[in-house]
């Protein structure tokens, strides 16, 4: 037995009066007046004297306290702080109980404010919910590695490349979120998984579109005055994406101008200017009819709550036996512009809300071609309503 160690006995620990008693080697017993007591270890590390609690006498025996003290001294001899090492081990142990499904939900909640509509559409979380969490959701996030990710996404990596890409990106954000919470995770796991999966072979397919020559017949069939019919009519007349149209609010309308907030436009940032759409006479007539259905400030509400969905418009076209989809009307308009007008490229692309030119070019070009687009959209309205098939010649030098 080393000199100065193991001074106490099990009996002396049990019968000791209130006070502090040394067992040697820095191990101490503090006995309280109520009969209870506490073990603690005194040690010096990096020139600082510290005290480390080892538990109560009711839970930790003298023998166990000595083992704990020996382990802590070994850590200190390695020039490490036993208290910090114990805390680190506790964090690592705790990280094993944080399941990916819980981390994913927490990451989603923390990002809602920066997502369009607070993420209510579900587009951020859906790739995880459908393709990742069913297999990895109940696994501790600290245990997930590139092989787990590869095996999870391999079935859709080539067949649903865009969905797989989104799922991989969301999973990477979840791992970063876990790391920010202090959990031990492999932040390179998604990059390693991509390397294992290889490049996708899937080729993206264009959304089926109705030929512009056939648009008038379909437009004429939308004559019920329902929310679905009116939404499809305005979608055709403006060439806008369905998202901004479905969330159209009364306050966005000012005369014959519809102003869409910049953050609501796909691929645009909060600092991007709002996007103005000149409304043709036919578009204004459609909006007037839609006013009868307005609810909660939205012109195209759903039957239950919120606004009409893109799927509702798509299902109507499916029931009509059409392969084309609502988004395809943007292609119909673009083809009409290319084949029947002399509209400059910049004007035609701006009509679809596309960003045209580089950063410097956009900084110097202050026009949004509003008046040129007004003329073209009026002609387009004449075409889709069957009133005109004339070719438009737009002067390239004209500006708003």
UniProtKB/TrEMBL annotation:
One Pfam family here: Phage_integrase
Keywords per UniProt: DNA integration, DNA recombination, DNA-binding
Domain Tyr recombinase: 205-377
CDD domains, A to Z: INT_P4_C
InterPro entries in UniProt: DNA_brk_join_enz, Integrase-like_cat_sf, Integrase_catalytic, Integrase_DNA-bd_sf, Integrase_DNA_bind_dom, Integrase_recombinase_N, Phage_int_M, Phage_Integrase
Domain of life according to the entry: Bacteria
Signal peptide segment: none
Keyword DNA-binding: yes
Annotated family: Belongs to the 'phage' integrase family.
Designated name of the protein: Tyrosine-type recombinase/integrase
Organism: Kaistia terrae
